[in-house]
Amino acid sequence: MPNEAVSRDEPPNHRGRVQAQGGKTEKSVDWHQDEPPTEAQMLELVAELEAKLTPKERDDREEPLARLRRLIHDAALAGGVDAPCFKSYVKKGSRDVRIDLEVIKGRACVLGTVAS
């Protein structure tokens, strides 16, 4: 799961963040872990970010959030996303209201196995 404990001697191999920016909003959820986050974990991070937003901030980012979820799914089917990856989805008609995905190190959005 995101932010799992890693050795203090070695930095995590995979890290990044999803964030809501613009319109006086700056909220984010990050990950830093030894294994690349799976599609399901990335969708959980998006849900966690969405839960931090006010109803208006969520409404303003409904379409960018849907586009990010689609990217995560498509990336998982393609084998994941490698760093560096910086992708922004801007609200139509806005200059700066957006959702960002930043894969800073390693990889993200990989297919995972279902736990039994």
What does this protein structure show overall?
This protein has 116 residues and is α+β, with helices and mostly antiparallel strands. 31% of the residues lie in helices and 31% in strands. It has helices at residues 39-52, 55-60, 62-77; strands at residues 14-22, 25-33, 81-82, 85-90, 98-105, 107-108. It is globular, with a radius of gyration of 14 Å.
What layout of secondary structure does this protein have?
Elements: E1 14-22, E2 25-33, H1 39-52, H2 55-60, H3 62-77, E3 81-82, E4 85-90, E5 98-105, E6 107-108
Antiparallel strand pairs: 1-2, 1-5, 3-6, 4-5
Give a short synopsis of this structure.
By secondary structure, the protein is of the alpha+beta class.
How far apart lie the N and C ends?
A: 16 Å
**Number of structural units classed as domains:** 1
How is the main sheet built?
4 strands, antiparallel
Round the mean pLDDT to the nearest integer and report it: 91
Order of adjacent strands in the largest pleated sheet: 2-1-5-4
Write down the Rg: 14 Å
N-to-C series of helices and strands: EEHHHEEEE
Structural class determined from secondary elements? alpha+beta
- Percent helix range: 25-40%
Beta strand %: 25-35%
> How many DSSP H or I helices?
3
Unreliable segments (pLDDT under 50, ≥5 consecutive)? none
Oligomer class: single chain
Number of strands: 6
Cα shape: globular
